[in-house]
Amino acid sequence: MNYQLIKVCGMGDAQNIREVAALGVNLIGLIFYPKSPRYVESISSDAGIIPDYSSLTPDPLPEGEGRNMLDKQLKEEETKGETRNKQPVSAQLKSTQSKAPFNKVTTPLSLGEGQGDEAVEGHGGEAAIPKFVGVFVNDMPQNIVTAVYNYHLSYVQLHGDESPVMIDNLRRTLVPDIVPQIKIIKAISVSSAEDLKRYEQYEGHVDLFLFDTKCKGYGGSGQKYDWSVLEAYTGQTPFLLSGGIGPDDADRLRDFHHPQCVGIDLNSKFETTPGMKDINLLQNFLHQLNKQ
Questions:
Q1: Is 280 left (phi over 0), alpha (psi -120 to 50) or beta?
Q2: pTM: predicted TM-score of the whole model, two decimal places
Q3: Which of 74, 83, 243, 268 is the most exposed place for a label (fewest CB within 10 A)?
């Protein structure tokens, strides 16, 4: 199966993000759940909670067109962020003109008709600049909105017990004034067909589902579940396959088929430490996954 979206989640180090971006993945996940070992740190200021731009000063990648493009965008964002974030948050939210380090792609992403018809170019073709996904767990909408703006998120992933009403209200807050093209992902913890039925209440309220392993916490467990459970999914919303996917799963992923599966979510199995991804491991895995 050809996966249109490759998401690498649980990242927080700028240099590591650059290296992963150079592999041509489509989405980079930043976790805003304080109890997660991959929590993205922020700093307090007169403007409220803003990104810790001081952490975005890694050593450069080797010379090359992709490195130069990422470096230029990151430096521009750091400069703009230091100036822009002196404004009150309320004033910041009125502007939608700033550019994020990794918020441009070679092909616009469309998830129309419930299928994700136009995939972002990446892992299997020309290198693209990934979009940022913010992962939240039962957070307050105002915190999510602030993070969306400050971190230039293109996706919001809700990994807790958020209600459809909360999701609708969040979208109305973000669209059209803050992020007109925001996409919302709802994670569903799965271990049985009965768990899977939870998706029904969110159908029509989100752009993507993410089916993850049911565990004591909220994802990132590294544990697998039986993907055959997903045969019972008959919804119209496309989904990402998640849950302990590791370097040895390329063959299994190629053999997996579901008409609504548009991508995969990678996290803990590709780490050296929480939040730091092993570039060689990811590169070899993507090579194996793209084998015909």
A1: alpha
A2: 0.74
A3: 83
CA 104 to chain centre: 14
Give the structural domain span for 187: 5-289
The answer to whether 202 touches 105, Cβ cutoff 8 Å, is: no
Q: Residue 164 belongs to a domain with what CATH number?
A: 3.20.20.70
φ, ψ for residue 171 (rounded to 5)? -65, -40
Number of domains forming the structure of the chain: 1
Identify whether the C-beta of residue 135 lies closer than 8 Å to the C-beta of residue 33.
yes
What are the mean pLDDT values of the chain's consecutive 10-residue runs (292 residues total)? 93 90 95 93 58 46 46 53 35 30 30 34 59 96 93 95 97 95 96 92 98 71 81 96 94 95 96 95 95 74
Residue 5: name the closest of 139, 156, 124 by CA: 124
The answer to whether residues 203 and 237 touch, using CB atoms and an 8 Å cutoff, is yes
Distance CA 277, CA 25 (A): 13
- Annotate 29-76 with three-state secondary structure: EEECCCCCCCECCEEEECCEEEECHHHCCCCCCCCCHHHHHHHHHHHH
